[in-house]
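Incident log, structure service

09:12 report received: a user says their structure output differs between two submissions of the same chain.
09:20 pulled the input from the user's history:
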Amino acid sequence: MDSQQASGTIVQIVINNKHKHGQVCVSNGKTYSHGESWHPNLRAFGIVECVLCTCNVTKQECKKIHCPNRYPCKYPQKIDGKCCKVCPGKKAKEELPSQNFDSKGYFCGEETMPVYESVFMEDGETTRKIALETERPPQVEVHVWTIRKGILQHFHIEKISKRMFEELHHFKLVTRTTLSQWKIFTEGEAQISQMCSSRVCRTELEDLVKVLYLERSEKGHC
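09:34 re-ran on a clean worker, output below:
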């Protein structure tokens, strides 16, 4: 559903951790479960790397991948199979030295996982994405917020493979968090999605994201 189809403010919440029977999409002879993403395969062009499709219940929703205007290196390179250019030798997952993690990436004894963010603005509409990368299962959970004039118009969740996520170069690593903090984030997100569907919310979403940042107390205790 896009903004032109919406009447007033519509908040669509799609939170499905398990695939439900019958909620599948079929593309080019392949079956995809709800929340799965893929690049379309067209006979005349082959696999279209710059288009990403997602199965929303039984409906295919496809969108163009927007590559960054600027890169952190001077001469980014185009690689076969990827939509956007990449910096040679540049790893997508960089360390965050400012946070208090031990050598194994644990915080107060709990395993941490990388959190990524993407913000895209077009025609007065802001699309903000918060993504969590997990090892079990090996996937990336992307939470998508569409905001217009401070009002949340659309909210949904996508789950994509790590390989596919690596092709989305508009994401940047912002922090690492734990599953317990991610749970607090998703519970608060569900409440805010309802609250901000009828009134302007300029600080609530920002405050919610801060939950994902891990900090020890001044004395260093957990």
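09:41 both user submissions now match this output. Likely a transient worker issue. Closing.
09:42 reviewer note: Helices lie at 162-165, 179-195, 204-209. The radius of gyration is 18 Å.
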